[in-house]
Amino acid sequence: MPEMKISFLGTGSGSSTNRAHSAMVYDCDDNTRLLVDASSGNSVARNASELGMSVADFDTVLLSHHHPDHMSGLLFVQFSRASLREDAPPLDVYLTEEALEWAQKMCVASHLNIAEVNDESVKNSNGREVIRWYVVDSGQEITLGPTTTASCFPADHISGAVGWKVISDGMSVVFSGDTRYNPTLVENSKKARLLIHEALRTDEELDYVKNRGHATAGEAARSASQAEVAELVLTHIDSIYHHDSRPLLDDAKKYYNGPISTVTDLHQMTVNGHQNSKG
After folding, report:
1. Please, are residues 139 and 165 in contact by the beta-carbon 8 Å criterion?
2. What is the DSSP letter of 163?
């Protein structure tokens, strides 16, 4: 039976004051490890260490978009990884064309032991490749492990923003990325074992949330219901709900009857079973 362990390194929104910004680790049962978004600062390295993981062991990154709360931590991931693992191959980073443009600018501006940035890779001051870019198109399937593939789909947030669908041994886990209510997400989440969806606030503040380019807990639940997913997890939560997420859960439970949870930094969960299995 397929199995995936998911570690939430950051679960806060962009304006979060009490949580790290967005990052997750997927550990698939074919030994594929994926870092999904890279948070900001050294949050990935710090929180991964709290969970017994080393940033040196991250080889593959899936980025949802170029906002700094999802991407800027990439600088410190590559820096720490290269220092800890001198024989490591380049860090493989999968992203859209728009995200690549901003990622390159970020690398150039940082000077964090980065000497050369081009459309293919990033090299440090020793001439060593520390990052290799892989530009992906929506719907393009990429092979990441013996039984693990991934594909991205458009998100309704900013130009070039995407969500990610990862399939490991037939089991589908979908991450919404930052997005408003998104019919394309529903289509890509059909019968998924798990939908990890952003939930900035509740339906009571729908206009505010939509204007910021995000979704409510109610919208996340409606998407889960329409896609007939087996389980829903809410993340990318605004600061006002960091200490009490019950209003988000109450909002979501109006529209989706399956298992729903909100997650906090350092939360870990294991999902198993084929698509639409309760696990």
Report:
1. no
2. E
The domain total for the chain is 1
Residue 174 burial (CB count, 10 A): 26
Q: What CA–CA distance (Å, rounded) separates 25 from 263?
A: 14
Residue 270 in any domain: the answer is: no
200 falls within a domain:
yes
- pLDDT-derived band at 275, boundaries 50, 70, 90: very low
Closest of 131, 168, 132, 129 to residue 151, by C-alpha = 168
CA distances from 75 to 68, 108, 116 (A): 11, 10, 14
What is the distance between the alpha carbons of residues 212 and 218, in angstroms, rounded to a whole number?
A: 16
Quote the domain boundaries for residue 230.
Answer: 3-265
* Token couple for 102: 């901003």
CB 194 within 8 A of CB 233: yes
pLDDT (tens digit per residue) in 202-223: 999 999 999 999 999 999 999 9
Position 135 in a domain: yes
For residue 8, is it within any domain?
yes
Kind and range of the H or E run holding 252: helix 246-253
The dihedrals phi and psi of 57, each to the nearest 5 degrees, come to: -95, 5
What CATH number is attached to the domain comprising 207?
A: 3.60.15.10
pLDDT in tens, 90-119: 999 999 999 999 999 999 999 888 999 999
* Helix 74-84 with 97-110: angle, nearest 10 deg: 60
The tokens describing 175, both together, are 């991450």
- Give the separation between CA 27 and CA 29, rounded to whole angstroms: 7
The pair of three-digit structure tokens given for residue 271, joined into one six-digit string: 């999902």
